[in-house]
Amino acid sequence: MPALAPTPQTSYLIWFRRDLRLEDNTALSALTEMANQGADQPHIKALFMVTPEQWLEHAMSLAQVDFIFRSLKELAGALLTQLNIELHLLQAPNYSQCVDAIDNFCQQHNISNIASNYEYEVNEMARDRALERQLSKKGITFHRYHDQCILPPGSVTTNDGTMYKVFTPFYKKWQSILDTGLVNLHPLAKLNHNKPDSDILPQILDSIEDLYQKTLRLFLERQFDQETTAQSLLQTTRQTYPAGEDQAYKRLQQFLAEDVQHYDIARDQSALEATSQLSAYLTIGVISPRLCYLKAKQAAQSAYEAKAYNLNEPNEDFGAEQDIQRWISELAWRDFYRHVIVENPDIVKGAAFNKVADQKVNWSYDLSDFEKWCRGLTGVPLVDAAMRCLNQTGFMHNRLRMVTAMFLTKNLFIDWRLGERYFMQKLIDGDFASNNGGWQWSASTGTDAAPYFRIMNPFSQAKTHDKDAIFIKTWLPELKDIPASVLHDEAKLRQALSKKGSFAQVDYPQPMVDHKQARLYAIEQFKG
Ligand code: FAD
């Protein structure tokens, strides 16, 4: 009788997307649990799909691409040493070819179950449905989990089950659900695995580096005129955003121990680094939003207890509770915008939330004006400083995102979609839902957006939030000798830079629009 061929052992696959971590990763936790129940020594593989053409189409920034690859190297090391799971990278030009590539991988490795965390954008959802259909014909199950938000889309609704259109009631409901203690972290099941074969790590890292180099070349070709600009940007982002879960966690702990104590006030000061700078990590999932939330709640509780304990010795440091709650509300904004896109998928295809407001404005597509805004040459110091900071560091402070977005949409009347795309191409934390939400808020076309008549004046914003013009002068050194009082006043600045003005020799343009006139015109347009 011929010997029976050994039955190939079934394997499990974790497909990482925007969740590049082991800690509190819903899909990974569920898969390890499932695999443990299914086999004594389960075989788990990990996968990440590199889709450069798709990334370019979605205007992903080079800074983020670089951060993803750096994070993948950290993830590969952690997966292998802690769980004996090998990370594989596959390349596909776009999402439809992604489906076939994963299908082939599953056949090759005898995969029975795949787990992933949801990505909520339209193309990603369509890709996942196509994969699910294709795999189910072959008996492979594709499990998906909610992981990107603290509370999943669809779970925070009005009493009649509809999505909130305004943030404050959403936030109250969100907080009341969380107060019931519903959110917990997802632990990793202990895997019965063989001793990790750490000899293969260099090989894995080489293959990641190889794909990184190919992707980098493509991005340099398509997004940059000069390679030196890109290299200098990457030098900065690598220093500011070291990769890895440990780094993200350290940043969270440090922020909650120190900077958060003045967050409520200091968060708006452009010259201060008073916010957590965790957005880049949250965007690609190096840290979990639930972990951020739970750690912040613990910190608030400690601040509360410390205050109660020191009741007779007032100490301003113990005012941190309110600051922490304010920070938590920012995490809620992040959830809110994700819930909004799931409820209104046409937003992902470029539609405004408030189509009536969007259609009232006669948006401009003047590329010469747009170019001035992109390069920081508008003649409005705070706007230009913010744009140059974005171009050189891949980051912009929240208030400045609002100021520059309002300037583009309500002083230059350029379609917010152009600005939205430009931000995505530059931001290391570029995230469709938050970026779109921020742009539509600023353009007054979004849900719970800024009222159309409340238009930020970039000069008075600078006076309030960059009093001594430290931020402006850092990014516009040509203005170093002009007093802050002049930089913060449009009429004085025009005079100072004019031919007969005291700073006529300074190589800096006159403000390209008169803010007061532009404001009136914007209000007229929105009134319709
Ligand atoms: P912190 O103040 O420490 O806040 C903590 C976290 O809360 C952030 O990391 C972020 O995840 C979340 N958060 C804070 N503010 C917001 C907000 N207004 N909306 C949604 N989430 C928020 N954020 C992105 O993560 N990616 C983007 O692409 C993005 N684009 C934006 C575009 C515009 C026009 C505007 C006005 C805002 C945008 N934001 C975006 C929101 C916000 O500016 C950044 O999240 C914040 O500046 C990141 O810095 P931080 O991590 O230090 O924030």
Explain the layout of strands and helices:
Elements: E1 11-16, H1 26-38, E2 43-50, H2 52-57, H3 62-83, E3 86-91, H4 95-108, E4 111-117, H5 122-136, E5 141-145, H6 167-179, H7 201-223, H8 227-240, H9 245-257, H10 263-266, H11 279-283, H12 289-309, H13 320-343, H14 355-360, H15 367-375, H16 381-393, H17 398-410, H18 416-426, H19 432-442, H20 458-465, H21 470-475, H22 484-487, H23 490-497, H24 515-527
Parallel strand pairs: 1-2, 1-4, 2-3, 4-5
Helix pairs in contact: 3-7, 3-8, 4-5, 6-13, 9-12, 12-13, 13-19, 16-17, 17-19, 18-19
Describe the structure.
The chain has helices at residues 26-38, 52-57, 62-83, 95-108, 122-136, 167-179, 201-223, 227-240, 245-257, 263-266, 279-283, 289-309, 320-343, 355-360, 367-375, 381-393, 398-410, 416-426, 432-442, 458-465, 470-475, 484-487, 490-497, 515-527; strands at residues 11-16, 43-50, 86-91, 111-117, 141-145. With 528 residues, the protein is of the alpha/beta class. Strand 1 (11-16), helix 1 and strand 2 (43-50) form a beta-alpha-beta unit. The protein has 3 domains: 1-148 and 201-238, HUPs (Rossmann fold, 3-Layer(aba) Sandwich); 150-181 and 244-343, Serine Threonine Protein Phosphatase 5, Tetratricopeptide repeat (Alpha Horseshoe), CATH 1.25.40.80; 355-527, DNA Cyclobutane Dipyrimidine Photolyase, subunit A, domain 3, CATH 1.10.579. The protein has a 5-stranded parallel beta sheet, sandwiched between helices. Helix content is 55%, strand content 6%. Flavin-adenine dinucleotide binds next to helix 11, helix 13, helix 17 and helix 19.
